[in-house]
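User: Hey, quick favor. My workstation is busy. Could you predict this chain's structure for me?
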Amino acid sequence: MAENDLAVNTQNQNDTTALTAIGAVEPVADTAADVAVVSAPAADAGTDLAPIVDPALLEVPFNTDAMGLIEAAKTKVLDEIDASISWYAEKAPQRGATARRLRIAMITTGGLSAVIPSLTQMHLPAWMVPVLGETISPMWTSVLIALTATLYAYERFYGDAEAWMRFVLAQQQLQRLREEFELNWLTIQVLHVGQPDLGKEMAELIRVSRARHRIIQIETEQWTAAFKAGLQATTPKQVEEKGAATGG
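Assistant: No problem, here it is.
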C-alpha cells in the first residue's frame, strides 16, 4: 500500500513538473520561505513617491484641449504646494517664539529656586529690601520649583519646540519639491519645443502631488507620536496605574 502511494505521488509530481515547464500551471511554494513571499501583502502604493503610472506607458496624443487641462492641473498643484508652504511659514515662527519664551521662563524660575535658599541666610543689600523685603521666605523655593515643573509639563504637552522643528523641515522640503517640479517641467518643455510630451507632464504632476501629500503625512505622523509622548509624560503615574488596573 505504501509503495502504491509512493508511486502515485511520484507520478503526480512528474505531471506537475511537466505542466509547469510548459506554463500550464503556476509553481506551488514548497518551503516556508516561499510561502512567506507568496502570501506577503503588496506594499501600499500611496506611501512612496513613485508615480502611480509608469511615464513610459503614458502615451497622450498632443492636442490643445489636453494641454489646457494639464496646465490647469499644474496651476492647481502649484497653488496647493504654495498654500502648504505659506501655512508652515506662518505657524513655524509662532511655535518657535512660544518655545523660546517657555524655555527662558523655565531657566529663570529654575535658577531663582536654586538661589533663594542662599538668600534666606544672607543680609540683603539696602537696594533689595524695598523689592524683596528684609527677609525672604524659604517657601518661595517650593513655589518656584512648582512653577518650573508646570512650565516644563506645558512644553511637553504642547511640544512647541518640536512643532517648530517639524514645521521648518516640512516647509523646506515643500520648497525644494516646488523648485524641482519647476525645473523638471522646464526640461520637458525644452526637449519638446512646440509640442511637449503630455504623458511625461502628467506623470510629473502625479509624482509631485503624491510627494506633497507624503511630506504632510510624515509631519502629521510625527506630530501624533509627539502628542502621545506628551500625554504619557504629563499623566500622573497614579492615574496610569489606575487605568491599567481597570483596563481603561
